[in-house]
Amino acid sequence: MSQQNPVPNNAGSPANPISTTTSTTPIPKARRCKSPHLSIRIDNPNNRFSHLSILSAAALPPRSLYIATYMYATSDSPPWALYLHENAQFGGTKYRNPSNRSWIANYGQASDIRMEEQLVGLYRVAVVRSLHIVDEVIREEDGRPCHLRGMTGSIWLGRTCERLKEEGLMAFGSWEGLSEEVCRFSGQHWESALKGLRPRPVEVASSCALTE
Hints:
Blueprint: E1 64-70, E2 81-87, E3 91-96, E4 107-110, E5 119-127, H1 131-138, H2 153-166, H3 175-188, H4 190-194, E6 202-204
Parallel strand pairs: 5-6
Antiparallel strand pairs: 1-2, 1-5, 2-3, 3-4
């Protein structure tokens, strides 16, 4: 396996060199979950609290991609993020739209994301061969932030996951199915997030193929 390039943290990086054609990725619909402030609770007999949840952040598998879920106060599309974990020494890069009302690129290094306030949990969706290529695909929309009317953080995340799938960097059936899975995961761990319990749990997406 070739040496991995470090993930850049500069949001103003040039456009993705992988493809010079305009993506035909369909625009996913905004995902809506029931508001946890309406006492959301999903009782699932198969719910598993991953063994990773009792380990330190250093135990996160290197070169892994996660959907990070955060607490929110309304029934609007949830403020999810992508988190690209490099290794225990560096941590990783978080790609998030904080307002969830408009398309605003907000990337930054996270050394111990599982201790963040408002974080509900991490849902592992991919094992990454090249951190650099995944970072480039995620940043494809940087140069055209307002080209789609109604773009929000959750729509951007669905669109980005579909692009990663097109490039062979993620493997899942449909964004609708994956997003429903993430909603269930978030609902299962919402109460412990409200209580401020840390570190936050980690689970592996059942609908994603994680092999390299």
